[in-house]
Structure formats: C-alpha cells, structure tokens
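Below is how a single chain appears once it has passed through the pipeline. First comes the sequence as given, then the structure the pipeline wrote out for it. We keep one example in the README because the format questions we get most often are answered faster by looking than by reading.
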Amino acid sequence: PNPNRPTQSLSSATPCLRANPHQKYIYPDPIPEFAEAETRKFKFELKKTLKKDMDTFGDELDEVVNVCAKVLHEFLSKEYGGPGTLLVEPFTYMLVALKDNNLPGAALAARASLLWAQNHIDHDWQVWNSHPS
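Resulting structure:
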C-alpha cells in the first residue's frame, strides 16, 4: 500500500449499486378513429399499387383489397398502439385469408400490404397524435 494514500474500505469507495426492475413501457390503447382513417388510406393506396398488376388480379382486385383492409382494420382497432407495435402477424393472416378465399395474387397482395404498413402506419400515427384534439 502507498503510505501517502489514505486507506478506505471498499464499501465506502464504491457507490451502492442497486438492481432496479426495468420499468415496462405501456403502449397506448388503439384509437378507433385512427384505425378507420388509416384503413381508408390503406385501401386507396393498396388498390392503386395492385392495379399495376391487373393480369394477376383481374375482376377480383376489389375483393383482394377488401380482404386485406378487413384484416388490417381489425389489427389497427384492437392491437396497434403506436410505433413499436406494428406486427407481422396481420399480414400473415391476410395471406391465409386470401388463399382461403381462393383469391389471386395472395402473396403479392400481402407483401404489398406489409410494405405499405411499414412505410406509413407508424409515421401516420405520430402525425395523428401530434395535433391537439
């Protein structure tokens, strides 16, 4: 030991570290009005995107869009609580619902829906919630 250095006990030299339980972030509840508005926007945009592939969808384009919109609306109404809560499952459900209804282009429509959601929903939620009511 260095004779010029005062001695300290280890417990007084180190700060007391306590384990704090992590606080769990609670996401906001879904907003029905947001779900309605976002579903309308989604239907318009998805139809515009899928129209580019009319050879695949033909006369069933509207039905494909409606099935996708129904699944998205259900998710937005019951589960989506803002950024960090966008899940992949609804888009898997879309794919299954489209196939179960023997609709064309199931994979293409589900993928287009997922890409649209990833590019728009979280941003739209933030814009929706940034304006005072």
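The helical segments are 10-13, 32-50, 54-57, 61-78, 89-100, 106-130.

See the next section for the split statistics.
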